[in-house]
Amino acid sequence: MQTEMHKFTRAAIHLGFALGLAFFGSVVCAQAPAQVPEWCRPLPRPEYKSLQRVLPDDPWFEVYKVAPGVFAIYEPHQFEETISYLIVGNKQAVLFDTGMGISDIRKVAAKLTSRPVVVLNSHNHDDRVGGNWQFAFVYGMDTDFTRKNAKGSREDAQTEIAPDQLCGDLPKGFNPKTYATKPWKISHFIHDGFKVNLGGRTLEVQSTPGHTPDSIALLDRAYYPAPIWLYRPETDLDAYVNSVKRLAALAPQIKLVLGAHNIPVAEPSVLPRLVTAIQAVRSGQGTVKPEGEGKAIHSLDGFNFLLAASKKENN
Ligand SMILES: [Zn+2]
Known about the structure:
Helix content: 10-25%
CATH superfamily: Ribonuclease Z/Hydroxyacylglutathione hydrolase-like
Bound molecules: zinc ion
CATH architecture: 4-Layer Sandwich
């Protein structure tokens, strides 16, 4: 195990939960004209120019090779700008999130690897699990939240395809009327510390609750910029602070952080800065701008946190 650990001192961490830096562009302006939503205008993001693009012909996904055997599968035409990751070992591959379920992510994964693909989710929000139903083997964190969301839903999915949520065309054959998060079967329940051996590369599950009770990060002893969404009812701010503290403690051993929205790569130094920023915001520092109903963007040191008004008042 020691040698195993050594191999991964070039560590990268896959942050599944909404961890992020600045990007005010992604804040949708309610009165913006329906045709080109505000968040869509600054796209494509310049950060992608330096990344190695693969499968350039896919009409919905943009795929980038971000590290050896690690592919970022980005969905730039929808507001979430979801990024899923395919992490390939010698024996099998993990698909870390399956995206919006708007296009066929299984087909993309099959083009990137011939090895069997198992699914792990950073957490079970609709933008992470849309393609889960397509896969034979899906891991799930052993939480009630995970079990409940595995039943699928139509409501959350439908709000994702409102005109102000889209930037460009939906893929051919996509039916907006029937669009829903399809239910899937959890093949195997997992806990903090669970390891997946891909052959020549082992991923370790780090439980990082906060954004949701079942949020995880994957540590490849093998990252991120956007507002951090912490306003949903299942969000627990105390838990979130503890989780980012835990990841920040790992920062000295980490080479690269891969995030789940907007931009795939960031420096590990972002982690301790994130801890400082969320704590300062909770103690009332930073600038506050109302955002939608009962929410506000709290900004400090380049980080933007989308918080519920009531949660903030508690502190
Ligand atoms: Zn989420």
